[in-house]
Amino acid sequence: MEKIVNGASLQPLSGERPKRIVLLLHGFGSSGADMIALAPAWQQAMPETLFLAPHAPQRGPMHGGYQWWPLGALSPAALAVGAASAAPAIDAFIDRKLDQYSLSEADLALVGFSQGTMVALHVGLRRPGQLAAIVGYSGMLAGTADLRAETLYKPPILLIHGSQDNVVPPAALRIAEKELQRLRLPVTTHLSMGLDHSVDLEGLNLGCAFVTNAFDR
Q1: Are residues 165 and 195 in contact, defined by beta-carbon separation less than 8 angstroms?
Q2: 61-75: per-residue pLDDT in tens?
Q3: Residues 6 or more apart in contact with residue 47 via CB below 8 angstroms
Q4: What is the pTM of this model?
Q5: Is-contact 119 23, C-beta < 8 A?
Q6: I want to staple 51 with a disulfide (CB 3.0 to 4.6 A). Which of 10, 33, 86, 139 is the partner?
């Protein structure tokens, strides 16, 4: 099994031992250094939270980038296989961090971008306890054939997508929403008008509020 051994992090603003963790999962060809840039905007609202943005364990095709799995075929079945192949390393990383800080699934939120959203949904819906929240930007649901049988808990999910995304089509947002609703999973969606394959301030604020509220439940 591949192992996640490095990445970027932002320690709790409180200066104390973390009471919660937000795990930020980057997109294809990116890195934890890119994803950790989201954390300072959320830190004021979650001062007791540790933000972790690991690099995927595989080097990507672009210089300095990483990938959770190689992107070849983009069919739902192929993406599901890819997300499943990435899951063990992420699960092991989560287990290590929860154990290190004596925290539980309820103290953890997963936040993904693009390919990171695919693995956040795959892993987050199959964990042995209910996560605080899952937030996905500009991604898609990578197959649902086994999801009903493998989902034990129903964490709140927020999916955000740009209306002008030319990498992952905006239609992926509605497809994921429909499938998650069919499985009776609590999903909220937001389409950012005029936005391409990126995260804007509105989406950043929506994600922050969603995770903060989930932790406060």
Answers
A1: yes
A2: 777 789 999 887 677
A3: 12, 13, 14
A4: 0.95
A5: no
A6: 10
